[in-house]
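Methods — Computational structure assignment.
A single polypeptide chain was analysed. Its primary sequence is given first, followed by the predicted tertiary structure written as structure tokens.
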Amino acid sequence: MKNKNIVLTGREVTLDANEQIVSKTDLSGRITYANRAFMHLCDFAEPDLLGVQHNIVRHPEMPRGVYQMMWETLQAGQEFFGFVKNLTANGDHYWVFANVTPDREPGGEVVGYFSVRRKPSARGVQTAAALYAEMLAAERQAGPARAMEASRALLAARLGGQSYERFVLALQLGKA
């Protein structure tokens, strides 16, 4: 969590089924665009978001291993899908199903990242919450130096050879 002054409330706010959160960042993850749905849901005004690291909305119950996997996927030039628990400015939280893609210039050069988040399936949130709690426990037990390695190992074991992408897409589409 970027803003350590935010006190967690435990209250969940939800995205409407027909809404999409859209944001763009530069290569280092600083927000360059945020749509109104994003600002409304996270309760940050545009000046509080633009130029700020996207992790301003990172909830402390999100395992570091998921973010490591996301960055590896994006840096390989691929799109990332996943369930993400985010934090609002007042300490509430919200879940999204995220699709993050490299933002490319016409010549193919990656200049940032484009993210569209939708309302997640209830089963996806339930499954991700339980899995992420296990991953966080593994991270804490392993300590800071080995946290992501432990988290990713636990995830791989739980997926049993299935890719994270296939796993989350099946949950979101109701096929798991």
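Note: Strands lie at 21-26, 31-34, 80-87, 93-104, 110-118.
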